[in-house]
Amino acid sequence: MTTQNKQLVQRALAELIGEGGVAAVEPLLSDDFRHHRPDGLIRDKTEWLNDVGNALDPLKDMKVDILHILSDADHVILHTHRHLPDDGPSIAVVDIIHLADNLITEAWELLEPLAEADAHLTWWDR
């Protein structure tokens, strides 16, 4: 099951940033899908698809490097570096994805601009 879950997550990412966009990802999400943003805001399936759909056009030339993809039972963790177009920042992203019945049911997303990473590594020196 873990290999199948990783393949589903990889397919969803490829479809999303490829030609398919949100229309190709929509059937891979459960009807009760929830997306948890770092600021605590939770989006339902319709809201998330709308938000991502609006963001995709300006990000159409974004490059995504998958650094790690780990799976444990019904969760997949995806660690990527995303290089935004037009000299935009590069960001590290960790997505924690919950799956059930071969669908993505929930996702948590953590983001950090790579240029700010050093500054964020000093919190324990206080």
From TrEMBL:
Residues 11-106 form the SnoaL-like domain. The lineage of its organism: Bacteria, Bacillati, Actinomycetota, Actinomycetes, Propionibacteriales. SUPFAM superfamilies: NTF2-like. Gene3D superfamilies: 3.10.450.50. It comes from Kribbella koreensis. InterPro entries: NTF2-like_dom_sf, SnoaL-like. It comes from the Bacteria. This is SnoaL-like domain-containing protein. It holds the Pfam family SnoaL_2.
